[in-house]
Amino acid sequence: MNDMPSTKGPAGWPRQRLVGLQNSAHRLNRYAITRPLARLIELVIRLVYGAYMPAAATIHRSVHFGHNGLAVVVNRAAVIEEGCFIGSHVVLGGRAPHPGAPRLEPGAAIHTGAKVLGPITIGRNAVVAPNAVVLEDVAPGHLVGGVPARILREGDQ
Fold it and tell me: Which of 47, 55, 88, 139 lies at a 20 to 30 A Cα distance from 40?
């Protein structure tokens, strides 16, 4: 019997230190006295992983970042729920003058180079194709792609 702790996250992907660091920064960001430490962790993430993931962003511990989050930019108001996949060079950002940031429901997949902008929701198990620019909500189970993104395949969750 193997007594080694599991190296797999809830979605079956390897656990990533990147997500653990961001989650620690998120917890430390709640209190004024520990906020400087949260900022230090943000800086470590930026320098070591080449990703911008502010402590204020809400990222579930089971989220998987392709290539350890290389060049991923996440808005501080973004919410990424469990089991999501985020490819490299993805932007989850704001869109002036619309306040707010993207929300990814469980199981959403955002592939390499995609830009998800503004206060929109990417539905459960929806897929955003590589290099797509998403400016509107994506229904659960749908596949979207293109610039601007349009529905390529409808899904039923």
Answer: 88
